[in-house]
Amino acid sequence: MNVVFMGTPDFAVPSLRTLLDGGYNVVAVVTQPDRPKGRKRELTPPPVKAEAMKHGIPVLQPEKLRDPGAVDSIRDYAPDLIVTAAYGQILPKSLLALPKFGCINVHGSLLPKYRGGAPIQHAVMNGEAETGVTIMYMAAGLDTGDMISRTQVPITDEDTAGTLFDTLSAAGADLLRRTLPDLLEGRLTAVPQNEAEATYAPNISRDNERIDWSRPSLAIFNQIRGLNPMPGAFTLWNGEVFKVWASRKPALATGASAEAPGTVLQMTDDGLQVRTGDGSLWLTQVQPAGKKAMSVSDLKRGTLIPPGTVLGVEPS
């Protein structure tokens, strides 16, 4: 049986390895084109391409999957099954209809919640207590296909989007390993999604990244860890971007105060205490413009942010 795997970031690599370790005949890998990366903007292959090349698997990198030539190049490999995981483009109908066993997707949420391109970040940002992985048949809509299997994963207060990516990546690969034999033998019944329960997780925008200090402390805490390790939450300090990478989970809300939201209350070796809409939040790891990420205690050795400073203020 010929399998074509489609994926791009680190999240997808364990699923590709699962297919290879399971003895499946992966005849080709489809991934996004190489992109400039880092300060030197060097052209860098996606992690899935790097993994495929280790195993001598042919790699296709169409800029747009909807181009007829892209579909034809995949058709040449006569796939019986297409497996996708965080590929990054919607599959056209002509491709969905191609393989005998269909196209299945390893998606990082408990569908129908968090359809879209950033389900892991939004689950953390929204303070969810659990998430998971769903394997589904792909359909013309955005993550709307019938569900084949799924597994649940708790979200702890210590989790960031980064740690959860790793956990869900491994969970998805394991779920794929357990699902494929029954799927190919026709022993599974796919279940339609309940559209009334559908929620969406669009790709992260600049508005998602900016901290609104008038929000509750817990919401900001979740925002910060949901955007770690990238792209990072930010505020403004002296008119420049001031990234916030970590904070301490807030205690009980204390309510409104005389200070405006965003006001620095104190700076100690333990962190930077900032007024929020319902209390305060201790920031523990930050990154001033033009510098590397650092603990607040390290920042304090060379730079003080005095009490009364208001973060998030646009330059006049």
From TrEMBL:
Positions of the Formyl transferase C-terminal domain: 203-302
Binding positions for (6S)-5,6,7,8-tetrahydrofolate per the UniProt entry: 109-112
Enzyme Commission (EC) number: 2.1.2.9
Catalyzed reactions per annotation: L-methionyl-tRNA(fMet) + (6R)-10-formyltetrahydrofolate = N-formyl-L-methionyl-tRNA(fMet) + (6S)-5,6,7,8-tetrahydrofolate + H(+)
Keywords, sorted A to Z: Protein biosynthesis, Transferase
Boundaries of every Formyl transferase N-terminal domain copy: 1-178
One CC-aspect GO term: cytosol
Family membership noted in the UniProt record: Belongs to the Fmt family.
Stated role: Attaches a formyl group to the free amino group of methionyl-tRNA(fMet). The formyl group appears to play a dual role in the initiator identity of N-formylmethionyl-tRNA by promoting its recognition by IF2 and preventing the misappropriation of this tRNA by the elongation apparatus.
Alphabetized HAMAP family for the sequence: Formyl_trans
Record protein name field: Methionyl-tRNA formyltransferase
Lineage, top ranks: Bacteria, Bacillati, Bacillota, Bacilli, Bacillales
Gene transcribed to yield this protein: fmt
